[in-house]
Amino acid sequence: MIFYFSGTGNSYQAASILRGKEEPLFDMADCLWRGETDFALAEGEALGIVCPVYYGGLPSVVREFVRRLTLDRTPDYCYAVLTCGGKPYGAAAMLENDLRARGIGLNAAFPVVMPDNYVLMFQIPEEKEQDRILSEAEARLRRIKVYAAYRRSMGLPIPARDTLATRAMYPAYEYGRRTKKFYSDDQCVSCGICVSRCPARAMVMENGRPKWVADRCIHCMACVRCGAVQYGKSTVGKKRYTNPILKVKQQKHHHH
Ligand SMILES: Cc1cc2nc3c(=O)[nH]c(=O)nc-3n(C[C@H](O)[C@H](O)[C@H](O)COP(=O)(O)O)c2cc1C
């Protein structure tokens, strides 16, 4: 069984590669929304958790989900795949602690570098660079799938310098994930797609424009995939990121 969370598709792509035939795959944000946090594992079934690294730790929604997660049995093997733009820091240790509080032991943690989607702070890599990063990530994920199948214990414990980095960095997420600075600019065509994409359900359409109604969100960048969605001045004119797994095929139109 795999639980995943993904804002811009990287972790969803990772989960799709890791997933075995017929293996159940659940979106943690959807599960939380529906109040589905009780799950039954088959005997010997492994548990996988796949999500991005935020501020050296976990997305708020992942922590909330794990806090409520109830399994009918203790999994024999539990592994985490943490997608990140560069460094996972102590995210795996945070997950290990959160899982331990639910009586679940984490056996392995695999960081996977994928394109950085945090346009509010960084530049999104160029297309060519994205392709290179994604093909390396795909090869790594195929190896991780084998490690997990063999139930290898790997990647833990996390070195103290990384957990210390997380301790310094993660508190800024609570402030960083406020919605106050989000707005849509004149390029907005009132399609409402950003609202429908929001896994936090923190947005509504109002007078043909998206409005961020929750005080805080996950800051997953799903809405920012649209170039008309801005965050203060920090996104204006900047490239946005979407993993190819979420890109719909462009139809060719022949207008003059
Ligand atoms: C709020 C936020 C914080 C992030 N913090 C980190 C970080 O501390 N370290 C890192 O390597 N990448 C960081 N990233 C980049 C993402 O972890 C990375 O792009 C991830 O693969 C996105 O996954 P997704 O497409 O499944 O949402 C951050 C991204 C966001 C949106």
Let me know the average pLDDT. 96
CATH topology of the largest domain: Rossmann fold
**Count the helices. How many?**
8
The Rg value, from CA coordinates, equals 18 Å
Spatial order of the strands in the main sheet? 2-1-4-6-7
CATH architecture of the largest domain: 3-Layer(aba) Sandwich
Shape: globular
Order of helices and strands: EHEHEEHEEHEHHHEHEEE
Strand tally, please?
Answer: 11
| Approximate helicity band | 25-40%
Unreliable parts: 251-256
Q: Determine and state the CATH class of the largest domain.
A: Alpha Beta
Molecular structure report:
- The structure is a single chain.
- The strands form four sheets. A five-stranded parallel β-sheet has the order 2-1-4-6-7, with helices on both faces.
- It has two domains: 2-173, Rossmann fold; 178-242, Alpha-Beta Plaits, CATH 3.30.70.20.
- It is globular.
- With 256 residues, it is of the alpha/beta class.
- Strand 1, helix 1 (10-18) and strand 2 form a beta-alpha-beta unit.
- Residues 251-256 have low confidence and may be disordered.
- The longest helix is centred in the middle third of the chain and has 23 residues, at 127-149.
- It has helices at 10-18, 28-34, 60-68, 91-100, 127-149, 160-169, 171-176, 193-197; strands at residues 2-4, 25-27, 38-39, 47-52, 70-71, 78-84, 108-113, 182-184, 203-206, 209-212, 229-231.
- The N and C termini lie far apart (51 Å).
- The chain binds flavin mononucleotide (FMN).
- Residues 6-12, 52-56, 83-87, 114, 116-118, 219-221, 243 line the site of flavin mononucleotide.
- The site of flavin mononucleotide has 25 residues, from helix 1 and strand 6.
